[in-house]
Amino acid sequence: MARGKVVSQEEYETLAALRYHLRQFLRFSEDAAKQVGLAPQQHQALLTIKGFPERDCVTISELAERLQIKHQSAVGLVNRLVAQDLVVRQSATEDRRQVYITLTSRGSELLLELTAAHHEELRRMRATFQGLLDRIA
Predict the structure, then answer these.
(1) Which DSSP helix (H) or strand (E) runs through 77?
(2) Between 2 and 73, residue with greater pLDDT
(3) The CATH number of 12-136 is which of 3.40.30.10, 3.30.450.40, 1.10.10.10, 2.30.180.10?
(4) Does residue 56 surpass a pLDDT of 60?
(5) Is it the case that residue 1 has pLDDT exceeding 70?
(6) Are 118 and 128 in contact (CB under 8 A)?
(7) How far is CA 4 from the centre of its chain?
(8) Are 136 and 14 in contact (CB under 8 A)?
(9) Cα separation of 66 and 48, whole Å?
(10) Long-range contacts of the stretch 120-129 (C-beta < 8 A, 24+)
(11) What integer pLDDT is reported at residue 137 of this predicted model?
């Protein structure tokens, strides 16, 4: 950050309000995951797998990077998801040493349910976020 830059009270208020509303959305997301029997990080993992660019599977390393967790934490997370029949491990056809994590049909159904709830909440919050982002620009 540049030294000597003057930040207005309105800028502080806008940033504080944006952070507040982001936290409200995150809280909604955490609660929605818990209501369907998932830990919030499990929901994030399912979304990461399904939403990975150009494919619907990830390696453990890719999952760890996307969730910003350590590799061994990602392994434990995947183990728990496998035990709940939400994901499966599959060896890559081109390199059998490479293992991909994909959603099961149960994992896909749960993610679809959560995604619908998240879309509804984001539509509800759209005007608030848009207004705050317009004030920053």
Answers:
(1) helix 71-83
(2) 73
(3) 1.10.10.10
(4) yes
(5) no
(6) no
(7) 36
(8) yes
(9) 7
(10) 121/25, 121/28, 121/29, 121/32, 122/25, 125/21, 125/24, 125/25, 128/21, 129/18, 129/21
(11) 67
